[in-house]
Amino acid sequence: MNAEIVYKYFPHLSDVQLQQFAALGELYRDWNTKINVISRKDIDQLYQHHVLHSLAIAKIINFRPGTRILDFGTGGGFPGVPLSILFPECQFKLIDGTGKKIRVAQEVCDAIGLKNCAPTHLRGEDEKDKYDFIVSRAVMPLPDLVKLMRKNISKTSQNALPNGVLCLKGGNLTAELQPYHKIVETTEISQFFSEEWFKEKYVIYLPL
After folding, report:
1. Sheet holding 185-188, edge to edge
2. Residues 136, 94 contacting (CB under 8 angstroms)
3. S-S: 65 plus which of 40, 89, 164, 177, CB 3.0-4.6 Å?
C-alpha cells in the first residue's frame, strides 16, 4: 500500500507535502532493516497503519500556525512525523526513551527536509517545556500519561480546542477513561477513514 491512501483523505496537500509523504515508505522500509521500529509484518501496511492512523488527529483539530505539540513516546516518529508534514507552521518535539528509535525519526526528518520536527532522546519525566498539546499513540494508560505529562501543558490556549492530550487508542477503553468520563471526548476513526482496519480505533481528546 502506498501514499495514495493519504492523498485520498487529504487531497489539498502542497507539492512539498506530497513528496514528503511519498518518501516515507522507502525510508522506513530501509531503516527498519537496520533498527526495528515497525513490526516486520506491518511494514507493508506503513501508510494505513502508521501514517494515516497518525493523521486521524488532524480530523479532530486543525492546529493553528505556531502551535507547539509534544509527541510523547514517538517510537520511530508516530504520530509526530506525519503530523509535522501536515502542519508545517507548527512546532513538534518528538521524545522517546529509546535512543535508536529517535535516531530513525531524526534520519527520516533529515531525509525529507522536515524543519519543524525535533526528535529528542528523552523520557517524559525529564521533559520541562510547555506545549499546547501532547499527542501519543497507545503509549500507556491515559491516567498514567496525564499524571506524567500534565506539567507540560501550557495554560494559554490558542486553538479551537482547549489545550490538552490527544491520544490514538483502540479496543475497550471504558475503565481507562472512567476517571475523565465527564470531560473526555472519544471519536471513532472509522467516521473519517472507511478501511476495515480503523474499526474500534479512536482519537481520545482530554482537555487539561
Report:
1. 117-121, 91-96, 68-72, 133-137, 164-170, 201-207, 185-188
2. no
3. 89
Contacts 24+ apart (CB under 8 A), 101-104: 101/35, 101/37, 101/74, 101/75, 101/76, 102/74, 103/35, 104/28, 104/31, 104/35, 104/37, 104/76, 104/77
Shortest CA distance to 89 belongs to which of 137, 17, 18? Answer: 17
| Axis crossing angle, helix 15-34 with helix 99-112, rounded to the nearest 10 | 150
Around Cβ 199, how many Cβ atoms within 10 Å?
12
Cis bond leading into 65, ω under 30°?
no
d(CA 34, CA 11): 33
pTM: 0.97
pLDDT digits (tens, 9 = 90+) for 8-41: 999 999 999 999 999 999 999 999 999 999 988 8
Sign of CA dihedral 141, 163, 99, 39: positive
CB–CB of 37/52 below 8 Å?
no
